[in-house]
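Lab notebook, bench 4. The sequencing result for the construct came back, and we need a structural model before the next group meeting so we can plan mutations. Quick request posted to the team channel:

Model the 3D structure of this chain.
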Amino acid sequence: MKEFLKKFFTIFTPLIGGGLVGFIISSHIDYKTLNKPPLSPPSFIFPVAWTIIYLLLGIGYYLIIKKNPNYKDKKLYYTSLIINYLWSIIFFIFKWYFVSIAWILILDITIVSLLKSFYRENKLSAYLQIPYLAWTLFATYLNIGIYLLN
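Done. Here's the predicted structure in token form:
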């Protein structure tokens, strides 16, 4: 039972955190009323994409710590989650679009560092993070576009 709970917690931590942040910001989301750049997806895409990304992130991290419980970059992993969660609060609650650009650029760099760290430990774990990096780079484009258009 203990091993099951550890596995469950490890895999679902990103999703639980993301769900909590989604709940906190839900009444502040004004995506539909913003002027958006070309290629902006409809709003229903975001929770679907983030659910998949958070699960892949949790699975990738679980594969690493299962093999190496002393994984040296645990702080990087959890820092990346915190940076990720705080972006939504900066963007949607405070509506600090310029600050959120700087914040998401920090997140982009953190994800690249995390991907490199994962690659050193378990190549599959790193490959599972490619959608996270791609989606966040796309979100960076959207963030910049929304800042410029609003």
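The mean pLDDT is 97.
Will bring this to the meeting.
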